[in-house]
Amino acid sequence: MQDTRINKLIEKCASGEPKEQAFALQELVKMKADSAVPVILELLHSSDEGIRFCAAEALGDLGENEIESVGCALINLLVDPKELVRSGATDSLGILAYKPARDSIESLLLNDSAPLVRASAAETLGDLGDPDALDTLKSAMQDPDEAVRSYAANSLGLVGKPDLLPQLQTYIESEDSLEVKAELLAAKYRLGDTEAMKSLLTFLENADEDLATVMLNILGDLIDRKIPLTITSDASEICQVLNLLEKRFPLLAHHSQSIIAKLAVLKSQSNQV
């Protein structure tokens, strides 16, 4: 039954009708139908920018088993005339951790005219995890766009080493954006500055709802990727601040509780070691 459904969706991909193709791509991703990858690769050549974008996104979810052909095809898409498509291809290369894309992604971060694409490139360099991208990420900390600097700061924490800590502090002192400062503090914490968590929590205690939302995402990321060794020892203090945050911003309660739950799991696992 499932194979029949997948085959029908693949037929829709070849229909030439963008609405049918977009629906089919979404459904194929939900069904984890990696057998559709060859057909999806063809859609990267669609005349419809929305379909090229959707196909690039789908390949990020389904392309792992055909990583070389998918990776090369996505790299070719990085010169697409539409910024949405370039951004989607960049994101998928990061999801697939396709390391041969690093040079092309660095070039986008330094040279692309679209902030959306540069932000995707900054994020993807963190996903690729190659320390050779450090100089490019440092350059991106001078980008005029706040989102680009935020993603670059996050990626510095993912690919850097503790010797980067003084440079991160310099960035904090010269940065006007509170969101970027928060990302830089999280990067410092990842790289071993245990005091950075206290500064992060002070930020959170005084944040408005928009900044608090950003900071919840930052805390969630710290729990999900390159987890700092000290986060379990800081868990109680983090949870205390999160519980207070919920009283100020009830709409953030679900997000806050999901972080508290993940911290509880990490703490339980550390106690079992």
UniProtKB/TrEMBL annotation:
Pfam families: HEAT_2. InterPro entries: ARM-like, ARM-type_fold, PBS_lyase_HEAT. GO terms for cellular component: phycobilisome. This is PBS lyase HEAT-like repeat domain protein. Keywords: Antenna complex, Lyase, Phycobilisome. It comes from the Bacteria. PANTHER family: DEOXYHYPUSINE HYDROXYLASE, PBS LYASE HEAT-LIKE PROTEIN.
